[in-house]
Amino acid sequence: MEEQNKNIRSDQAVVERQHEIVAMVDAMQEAVLMRDPKECGRLLHHNWELKQQLSSKIGEDSIDALYQKLLSMGAYGGKVLGAGNGGHHSVSR
């Protein structure tokens, strides 16, 4: 979290990723209201790609491997929940 906060204060590209993540809220709300799991998954996946660009400490090999496995099994996208030291995946399928 410390690296992410530092990057947000000093790296314009990271700030732009943060703005893009925030801008996705309305699209996700619409997808949920429309009960569109494929669009929810697509948005979750895009969010995860953006989130990983905020800090080198976001994600790890085992999480990425599990996520890729879930995608290969038909998941549309997912979200890693938790702030280190544990957590779990939420998957849209």
Give a structural overview:
It is a single chain. This protein is 63% helix and 11% strand. α1 packs across α2 (12-33) and α2 packs antiparallel against α3 (37-52). The chain is mainly alpha-helical and 93 residues long. It has helices at residues 2-10, 12-33, 37-52, 61-72; strands at residues 77-81, 88-92.
Any key phrases for this structure?
93 residues, mainly alpha, two-stranded antiparallel sheet, 63% helix
Mean pLDDT: 82
SSE class: mainly alpha
Which ranges are low-confidence, i.e. pLDDT below 50, for 5 or more consecutive residues?
none
Kindly estimate the percentage of residues that lie in beta strands according to DSSP.
Answer: 5-15%
Radius of gyration: 14 Å
User: Within the largest sheet, what's the order of strands?
Assistant: 1-2
Fraction in helix: 55-70%
**Spatial separation of the terminal alpha carbons:** 29 Å
Work out the helix count: 4
Number of strands: 2
Shape category = flat
Biggest sheet features: 2 strands, antiparallel
The arrangement of helices and strands along the chain is: HHHHEE
